[in-house]
Design goal:
Number of strands: 12
CATH class: Alpha Beta
Order of helices and strands: EEEHEEHEHHHEHEHEEHHEE
CATH architecture: 3-Layer(aba) Sandwich
Number of helices: 9
Radius of gyration: 21 Å
Helix content: 25-40%
Shape: globular
Bound molecules: iron/sulfur cluster
Largest sheet: 8 strands, mixed
Structural class: alpha/beta
Number of domains: 1
CATH topology: Rossmann fold
Oligomer: single chain
C-alpha cells in the first residue's frame, strides 16, 4: 500500500480467510481479505448482511479461529499466539457488540459489569478497582447514581455506554466496534458516535467500525472498506469513496442513501439478479450476477483488489491503475 514506510501501522491483515464447513461444501465467509490500519485511525467496514464484515472482525480478534492468513498487531503475528499469550493481549484488543443487552449479564449491576474485566486481568486491590469503575463511568457519561442499577432498568443508549466502559477498562489500543449503534434510536446513535469519537481523540484508540449503514460510517471513519460476499471490493479514504465510488456495488450502496436536498436528482441504482451463493463460490467476480457491466471475463476470473489511485483500492476488471 502507498507510503506505508512513513505510516504508523497498528494492524496489518494479510490474506485472512474464514471458511465454515456446511452441508454442500464450504461457506467462504471471509475470503482473502488484506488491509492495513494506522494507529489512532478508524476503518469502517460496510456491506450487506452476510458479506463477512462481522466475521472479519471476530477472526482478527481470534474470537473465532481464522482458516488461514496472518494478523499483525504492532508487528507481531497474533494468529500464531498461544491461548495464554492471546489472553494477555486481550487487554489491548477489545470488542463492542451490537446488542448491549444480550452481551450484558442481567444479574450484574452496572459497577459489577464494568469491574469484571479489571478482576479478570488481575487488578487485585478493590479500592483501586472501584475508583477505576467510577472513572470509566464518568468517561462514558454514566451518572454515579446508576452504579447499582441492572441492565433491564436502563435504556439502550446507557446499556451501550456500559459496553463501551467495559471495552475501555484495560486501556486498549484497538477496538472492533461491531454494529455498535444499529440497535439504537437515531438520536441516541449520534450521542454514542460522538462519545466514541471523543474517546478516540483523548486516548488515541484505533477502531474498526463494522456497519451495514454507510451513512453512519461516513463521518466516523478515516477509511472505508466495502465487502461483498466475503471479499473486499473497494477501500479508500472516506471522502474519496463518497465523492467518487468506483466499484459498481459501492455505487449501488451509495445511491440508496437518502439525500436531504429535495432538488437533488440522485438516482437509486436497483440491483437485480440472484446473489451468488457463498458456498463453494465460483472463480469469478462474485458480483457478476448482479452487475450491469459484467463481461465473460467477469464470469470466469476473480478480480484482485488493486490500487487504482493513491490509497484507492478496487477489485473490478473494468478498472486499471491510472
Ligand atoms: Fe462488474 Fe465485472 Fe467489475 Fe465484477 S469485475 S464488478 S462483474 S464489471
Amino acid at each position: 500500500m502507498a507510503n506505508e514506510t512513513k505510516r504508523d501501522i497498528l494492524l496489518d491483515v494479510q490474506h485472512l480467510k474464514k471458511y465454515f464447513n456446511v452441508a454442500g461444501g464450504q461457506l467462504h465467509a471471509v475470503d482473502d481479505v488484506s488491509f492495513t490500519l494506522e494507529r489512532g485511525k478508524t476503518l469502517g467496514i460496510v456491506g450487506e448482511s452476510g458479506c463477512g464484515k462481522s466475521t472479519t472482525g471476530r477472526a482478527i480478534l481470534r474470537l473465532i479461529e481464522p482458516t488461514s492468513g496472518s494478523v499483525y498487531f504492532e508487528g507481531q503475528d497474533i494468529s500464531k499466539l498461544s491461548k495464554e499469550e492471546m489472553r494477555k493481549l486481550r487487554k489491548e484488543i477489545q470488542i463492542i457488540f451490537q446488542d448491549p443487552f444480550s452481551s450484558l449479564n442481567p444479574r450484574q449491576t452496572v459497577s459489577q459489569t464494568i469491574e469484571e474485566p479489571l478482576k479478570i486481568h488481575g487488578m487485585k486491590n478493590k479500592a483501586e478497582r472501584q475508583a477505576r469503575v467510577r472513572e470509566l463511568m464518568e468517561t462514558v457519561g454514566l451518572a454515579e447514581r446508576l452504579a447499582n442499577a441492572y441492565p433491564h432498568e436502563l435504556d439502550g443508549g446507557r446499556r451501550q455506554r456500559i459496553g463501551i466502559a467495559r471495552a475501555l477498562a484495560m486501556n486498549p489500543k484497538f477496538i472492533v466496534c461491531d454494529e455498535p449503534v444499529s440497535a439504537l434510536d437515531v438520536s441516541i446513535q449520534a450521542q454514542i458516535l460522538n462519545l466514541m469519537k471523543d474517546i478516540q481523540r483523548k486516548h488515541g484508540i484505533t477502531y474498526i467500525f463494522i456497519t451495514h449503514d454507510l451513512s453512519v460510517v461516513n463521518h466516523f471513519s478515516d477509511d472505508i472498506a466495502v465487502m461483498y460476499l466475503g471479499r473486499m471490493v473497494e477501500k479508500a479514504p472516506a471522502e474519496a469513496l463518497f465523492e467518487e465510488p468506483l466499484h459498481p456495488y459501492t455505487k449501488a450502496l451509495l445511491s440508496a442513501i437518502p439525500v436531504p436536498n429535495i432538488h437533488s436528482k440522485k438516482e437509486r441504482i436497483l440491483l437485480k439478479g440472484e446473489v451468488t451463493s457463498p458456498i463453494n463460490p465460483p472463480k469469478a467476480c462474485r458480483f457478476a450476477s448482479r452487475c450491469e457491466y459484467a463481461t465473460d471475463k467477469c464470469r470466469c476470473e476473480e478480480p484482485e483488489l488493486i490500487e487504482v489511485k493513491p490509497d484507492h483500492f478496487v477489485a473490478c476488471h473494468l478498472l486499471k491503475k491510472e
